[in-house]
Amino acid sequence: MSTTNSNLYTIMHDRKSVRKYDPTFKMSQAELEEIIKEATSAPSSSNLQAWRFLVIQDDTTKKELRAIANNQEQIETSSAVITVLGDAEMYKNVEKIYTQNVAEGHMDEAQRNLTISNTLRIYPSAPLEVRKSIATFDAGLISMQLMLIAKEKGFDTVTMGGFDKVKFAERFELPENQFPIVLIAIGKAAAPAFGSSRLPLEDIARFI
């Protein structure tokens, strides 16, 4: 069964990492909000949704961020930079999340109570690095989904992990439980992205 002509496959292959943006093109906050909201359908560990977002649109602030992010041009010329943050205390939202699950008919009260109990037994006692690793993994899932949604809506993106995360946290006064994971520049391309090759399947996958 072939599905390579589907809209999803087209979007996947059309999405490239764009580093040259039209600095005159500005996205609205409503457009950015819609993309992020749609992206939150991504899966997450125990549905705790450990992702948080800091969206930077202000030109002066983007210039400051560029200095923190190894002078990458796209920080300043893109319409916005979406910072994906992780929340190491994601378990504190468990009651809110699973109460909403019941209200929306996804589970009953007994399953809600069991899930909350198990979450509060496991997550708070897990080492900080383990919880940060969970949040980072989940950030990867939602980041990819966000970029595909952006492409479907006609926008271009690039992810950046090369920035001073300590300075970022200080500059934007992040609470202790939150930490920056990746920056996503978003806007309209001013030049085509470079193509990129991929390793052959036999180099990366084993079937047993």
Short synopsis of the structure:
Residues 14-188 form the Nitroreductase domain. The chain has 208 residues and is of the alpha+beta class. The chain has helices at 7-14, 29-39, 59-68, 73-77, 94-103, 109-122, 128-152, 165-171, 201-204, and strands at 51-56, 80-87, 156-160, 178-187.
Layout of strands and helices, then pairs:
Elements: H1 7-14, H2 29-39, E1 51-56, H3 59-68, H4 73-77, E2 80-87, H5 94-103, H6 109-122, H7 128-152, E3 156-160, H8 165-171, E4 178-187, H9 201-204
Antiparallel strand pairs: 1-2, 2-4, 3-4
What key phrases describe this protein's structure?
single chain; 208 residues; alpha+beta; NADH Oxidase; four-stranded antiparallel beta sheet; 4 strands; 14% strand
Protein model, in words:
Belongs to the nitroreductase family. This is Nitroreductase family protein. InterPro entries: Nitroreductase, Nitroreductase-like. It comes from Viridibacillus soli. Keywords: Oxidoreductase. It is a single chain. The chain has a four-stranded antiparallel sheet with strand order 1-2-4-3, sandwiched between helices. The two termini are 22 Å apart. It has a domain of 139 residues: NADH Oxidase (3-Layer(aba) Sandwich). The mean pLDDT is 96. The longest helix has 25 residues. It is built from nine helices and four strands; from the N terminus they run ααβααβαααβαβα. The protein is of the alpha+beta class. Helix content is 45%, strand content 14%.
